[in-house]
Amino acid sequence: MWGPVELVGIIAGPVFLLFLIIITVFLVINYHQRVYHNRQRLDMEDPSCEMCLSKDKTLQDLVYDLSTSGSGSGLPLFVQRTVARTIVLQEIIGKGRFGEVWRGRWRGGDVAVKIFSSREERSWFREAEIYQTVMLRHENILGFIAADNKDNGTWTQLWLVSDYHEHGSLFDYLNRYTVTIEGMIKLALSAASGLAHLHMEIVGTQGKPGIAHRDLKSKNILVKKNGMCAIADLGLAVRHDAVTDTIDIAPNQRVGTKRYMAPEVLDETLNMKHFDSFKCADIYALGLVYWEIARRCNSGGVHEEYQLPYYDLVPSDPSIEEMRKVVCDQKLRPNIPNWWQSYEALRVMGKMMRECWYANGAARLTALRIKKTLSQLSVQEDVKI
Question: Which of 84, 127, 203, 208 could form a disulfide with 235 if both were Cys (CB 3.0 to 4.6 A apart)?
């Protein structure tokens, strides 16, 4: 038989041991929580912390930070998820097949907010994904800030927040204003620079895939306050992985705007396994955009009224068949006026357009070649870029 002292020892020993284990577990958990909270606090106090926004940073400060970070486009994802709550929508500035575009106020500056309907979730996700490609940020590509969603009580709105440009699209701009030779060169060169950067592949761990736009047109290019272009609307873009030689594309051959479709897209002969084919189709469209710009160039008091490409050959909303007949069968292209020959800048522009419009995509100029030609022209014409 156990005596009272032994019984107390037998019972108290395991209880004491259990108590020690509980205390130890509690202390370990408490320690880890303190470390975690301290690390969070240090991150919040660290001015270089990418995961936070100090309250006194203006929109201009943030855009500058994004431009010099060298990383992907847009704010850190942690911050993007809080953006929609703090933007005040001001006015509607555009509508498209996806939804609406608003001007909003955020951190003391104007931003553009593209609001997709919930049925356009795939388009919203795709455009946000393309904009966040590493090393995409460039002065001639629309500056992406954030992608977020906002529940308005009835349905979920999908937001894509970007830089705001008060001139609006190149289409709007050319409808309102004529341009000088200097203005024409600035628009054309900046558009080529943006497209060259989009098309370029940078190989390496922090590399950038080649990207083809697939819906380049004057309505998808914005005009900045300094008279330069910023390429926008990347929702239909395709990316090329140089390492695996694969193309990230939805299995749909015909996308984009019919009026700007290259011959090989209209007649379905585009080689979808070859990334250069997509770049060549972009160049054809760029040539049409150049035609729109050059027509509005006021030289010697002469200029043309604004028109869309092929305005005199197809209806206002042409079908694929109508475009194919004009572009592929009749091999027609927009008219280049004879008087352009009297001005070196317009002569060069006209020559470039023809070299963008070849029926054979492989014979067309590259964006880089166009950029170099226009850079030389800007030096000749003493254009301040």
Answer: 127
Q: Which of 148, 163, 215, 282 is catalytic?
A: 215
Q: Is 273 within any annotated ligand binding site? A: no
Looking at residues 197-225, what average pLDDT do you find? Answer: 93
Q: Spell out the domain ranges in the chain.
A: 59-163, 170-380
Domain 170-380 in the same topology as domain 59-163: no
Mean pLDDT over the full length of the chain? 85
Res. 31: pLDDT tops 80: no
Per-range mean pLDDT, top range of 30-34, 274-278, 379-383: 274-278
Our answer to whether residue 215 is catalytic in this structure is: yes
What is d(CA 293, CA 28) in angstroms, rounded to the nearest whole number? 68
Architecture per CATH, 59-163: 2-Layer Sandwich (3.30)
* Domain 170-380: assigned CATH number: 1.10.510.10
For 343, the 3-state DSSP assignment is coil
Task: Please name the residues in contact with 237: beta carbons below 8 A apart, sequence gap of 6 or more.
Answer: 130, 198, 211, 212, 213, 214
